[in-house]
Design a protein that fits this description.
This protein has about 325 residues and is an alpha+beta fold. The protein folds into two domains: about 120 residues, no CATH class; about 160 residues, no CATH class. Helices cover about 45% and strands about 15% of the residues. The longest helix is centred in the middle third of the chain and has 35 residues. The two termini are about 30 Å apart. The model has no long low-confidence stretch (mean pLDDT about 95). This is Metal-dependent hydrolase. It holds the Pfam family YdjM. InterPro entries: Transcription_regulator, YdjM-like. Keywords: Hydrolase, Membrane, Transmembrane, Transmembrane helix.
Amino acid sequence: MDPMTQGVLGAALPQSTSNPRLVASAGLLGFLAGMAADLDVLIRSSEDPLLFLEYHRQFTHALVFIPIGGAICALVLHQLLGRRRGLSPAQSWLFCTLGYATHALLDSCTTYGTMLLWPFSEQRFAWNTISIIDPLFTLPLLLAVVLAARLGRPALARLGLAWAIAYLGLGLVQRDAAQDMGLALAAERGHTPLRLEAKPSFANILVWKVVYETGDRYYVDAVRASLWPRVYPGDSVAKLVIDRDLPWLDPASQQARDVERFRWFSNGYIARDPIYANRIMDIRYSLLPNEITPLWSIELQPDADGRDHVHYRTHRGSGSDSVSLLWDMLIRR
């Protein structure tokens, strides 16, 4: 999730457990600790552009790291803030640990993938119940946290937590409905998907991106799961076959290893870009939910040295047009 949402959820949990006198302090420490796990984005390399993909949402997001992450946050924040606010070291540790604990669980509700069980497993958990940014989730929670701090009312923070849980539960219901619509659409086309996923589109849980896999292709469509359910047919693209699509690629080269690293990160949903022949895209994410145009990809160079890495690319396209089209999907009857 975005840093603000991580922070306010991190604030709400320690606030809800504190006494009225400490609600503001609990919220402040929880807010900062709730964002701290994402400091793993600093693990990157100018030589290896995919390094950050391997470490983001890895050990700092693992369940076993929660008490360690909380202790590190408390070690810093108690000296900067906690002691000045009259907190004991134990209180600072508790508030920081509770705030830190919310981060990975909330990230797992998104579609990116979070290694909750590291170092025992590298499985990436993605429950696909909420977009990485969702104002309807964040703003009521933010209001509850601010009012709880100003009025010294832990009950308001608990109300905010109840909203967060209810909203994520609604996202789960919407996800399942979107998956059912995707399966019905595939059946209409005579397809039996090898796998199918539904992911919320940007900033809402009403319109969903449905991606399913057949023997040789990926199909991408959008569906509105409730409020006049509707299907927005999309595109399809051939699955990546390296021998066919990149016959020049040396299997022993660094670029070939990078392709497999990108395949792991993308949960296998990769295809050659139909416009740029040497670009491999992650089809799970796009500005419009019924498009295959990617938000990120890797670019290979046929004349590269065997030790050279691929290039990592991000794509934004025509943002204003995409927002307008998405809004139309949201409101059209």
